[in-house]
Amino acid sequence: MASAAAACSGTGKRRSCRIALNAAVGLSGEDRANQTFSLSARATNLNKYGAAIAVSRELGVGTTVLVRNKRGTQVSARIVAQVSAGQGVHTYGIEFTEQDIRATGFWGITFPSA
What we know:
Elements: E1 6-7, E2 18-19, E3 23-30, E4 36-47, E5 50-55, E6 64-68, E7 74-86, E8 89-96, H1 101-104
Antiparallel strand pairs: 1-2, 3-4, 3-6, 4-5, 5-8, 6-7, 7-8
């Protein structure tokens, strides 16, 4: 695996460092039009509590989705913000809704202390 940069700030509001890695994930839930979906997505800027997710659907901030990694682990996550949108791709910040062992080990990496 390629080396990744970790972005940490002692004065910021972040609870953990963000790591500039990309990960393929599955995402399912209901979109902004209340249509159910299940699709492949790209997670970026991974952190211990969530990530940014790029998808081809419009999602509602505050809604809950199910995120699945390559190892088959599934966790619930809340859409906390829309980060960007353009050319049919919408990027959202997600936060895992629970902090159990599935969530804390979801990405399969160890995060540096914030």
